[in-house]
């Protein structure tokens, strides 16, 4: 259609859609919320494992641990979806993905430990896992704390301290693993018990490793932004 005043052809039809500034510049808070929620589920999984191991073998159920991992899987999926929808993020996209992937692996590994414990039944009723569980709880609690530091505008010294704690826990876990294996091989347990315990010890070690990895990712993020 020609304008009667200037003779310029005007565009017919509805106006072009407005660009969402929130979408363009990113919904930064949601990534902090989701990463913190994922870290909380990692801690929750260890607490659920402690509860499961404390119960008689016949009463142990996976329900709480399965629910925790499903919740964490949904959180991880939401992080991936938000990364696809958001153009600009306060944290670099690859850092968000790296931290999300490490956090997701913690409850996944803890669930595997619980599965082995249930399969073992009463075969391991004389085994004390309290030291390993305490270290896993300390490690995942520290992971929650260090992930929350990301929202607080990246305090480098605090993050270094928390990461050092995670490194220390992982180092102490390695020493404990060697002591346990030495006692296992030198003892008089039957071969099936030895196989079961070795499998459990290795899975527990992976939990400490994943927590250490989470600390390393956060430290890397903070160092880049300091």
From TrEMBL:
Q: Which domain of life is it from?
A: Bacteria
Output the Gene3D superfamilies linked to this UniProt entry: Phosphate transport system protein phou homolog 2, domain 2
* InterPro entries xrefs: PhoU-like_sf, Put_Phosphate_transp_reg, UPF0111_domain
Instruction: Give the similarity note.
Output: Belongs to the UPF0111 family.
> Would you tell me the protein name for this molecule?
TIGR00153 family protein
Name the source organism: Prosthecobacter debontii
């Amino acid at each position: 259609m020609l304008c009667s005043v200037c003779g310029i052809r005007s565009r017919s039809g509805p106006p072009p859609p407005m660009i969402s500034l929130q979408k363009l510049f990113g919904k930064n808070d949601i990534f902090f919320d989701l990463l913190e929620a994922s870290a909380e589920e990692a801690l929750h999984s260890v607490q659920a494992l402690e509860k499961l191991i404390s119960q008689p073998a016949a009463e142990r159920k996976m329900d709480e641990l399965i629910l925790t991992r499903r919740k964490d899987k949904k959180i991880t999926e939401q992080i991936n979806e938000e990364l696809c929808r958001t153009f600009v993020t306060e944290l670099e996209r690859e850092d968000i993905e790296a931290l999300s992937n490490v956090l997701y692996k913690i409850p996944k590994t803890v669930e595997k430990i619980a599965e082995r414990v249930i399969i073992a039944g009463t075969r391991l009723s004389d085994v004390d896992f309290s030291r390993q569980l305490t270290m896993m709880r300390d490690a995942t609690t520290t992971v929650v704390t260090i992930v929350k530091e990301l929202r607080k505008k990246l305090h480098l010294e605090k993050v270094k301290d928390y990461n050092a704690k995670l490194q220390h826990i992982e180092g102490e876990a390695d020493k404990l693993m060697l002591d346990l294996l030495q006692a296992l091989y030198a003892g008089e347990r039957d071969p099936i018990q030895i196989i079961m315990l070795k499998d459990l010890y290795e899975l527990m070690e992976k939990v400490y490793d994943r927590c250490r990895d989470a600390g390393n990712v956060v430290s890397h993020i903070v160092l880049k932004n300091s």
